[in-house]
Amino acid sequence: MEVHTLTLRSRSPFHSRKFISRFTLPPRLPISIIFPTPAFQLQTTHRRLTVAAAAPKKKIHGVSDELNLIASQTIDYAAARRRVRSAFIQVQQQLDHYLFKMAPAGVRTEEWIERNSKGLEIFFRSWMPEPGVKIKGAVCFCHGYGDTCTFFFEGIARFIAASGYGVYAIDHPGFGLSEGLHGYIYSFDELADNVIEQYAKIKERPEVKGLPCFILGQSMGGAVTLKVHLKDPQGWDGLVLVAPMCKIADDMTPPEPLVKVLTFLSNVMPTAKLVPQKDLAELAFRDPKKKEMAEYNVICYSDPVRLRTAVQLLKATKEIEMQVEKVSSPLLILHGAADKVTDPLVSRFLYENASSKDKTLKLYEEGYHCILEGEPDDRIFTVLNDIIEWLDARC
């Protein structure tokens, strides 16, 4: 791995003017950062920050050299992500995963792209019950960090749609097939505002207009869902939160001195990437075979988190944690009891402190973070049924 040195007393590639920092790092505070410009250098007064060039992508097992070559390309921007996704659609649908092999037939799907008020192309996908089935309501999805609505959620959506719901999903700006620098969140509030804007249009679609509308958020999407609700308390007939990122688990959260350093650096080099300290896939998937299938999610953002993105995620969780008593919508919270990515105890805190009169918490014994994708088949079936039964009782 190539190592570079960087100097704060220099011209930043993200700013045209010079700046001189009086900021110093506390001793023995390890920080590693990956920069998009490998030659850029930074050095502090007392110690040196280590940076490294990004490692090449791992080879995907069981696919041709041609597909591996396609998957290995840089997908910082939407056009490349869309090409890669098109090349892998058939491979993904043939995976030996419960969500794909047991997905109900007859579900009607559609996908399209619209520009949002910021001028970005936003990718939409919908799943509708087969013709003749009465639609009970709409379920709108917010995906998690790094993810897309076009991989594992494809199977989840089919199960919910087959039960009589119109299911709608978007890729957040900077993720999946929507425009924006891959993995980059400039503002978490803008992420929530985009969800409100896009799903306001969905609610007016003739097939679901006037029907109950629910929003389903997973992981970071749970935090987005809560922000959406806090901005628009009357906008939804219920919230479904799956392993919500109300607060990042203590052993995943940087210490406060490091948070201050990250905040400072995020204003200087916002798109730079932090070197990850933990294997999130190992923490997220309990079933080893399903963990292996995650590598086929070829347009997910699996690189180290970008500096500004990290700061925005930390800021959002703190804001949500301080406002949980304002959560008033009917609420279903689902969480793996052994989740090491987002803290199930915080889901309990949310359940106990939310002002909702209609609220349910389900903790799944031994469950990891991805309780809808990475658990044994019977657990995935149970969680899906719990969601559908909760929705049915409120339609």
Automatic annotation (TrEMBL):
Pfam families, per the entry: Hydrolase_4
Stored SUPFAM superfamilies: alpha/beta-Hydrolases
Signal sequence, renumbered to the chain: none
Name listed for the protein in its UniProt record: Alpha/beta hydrolase-1
Ion transport is among the record's keywords: no
GO MF annotations, alphabetized: hydrolase activity
Highest taxon above the source species: Eukaryota
UniProt lineage: Eukaryota, Viridiplantae, Streptophyta, Embryophyta, Tracheophyta
Keywords tagged on the record: Hydrolase
Domain Serine aminopeptidase S33: 135-376
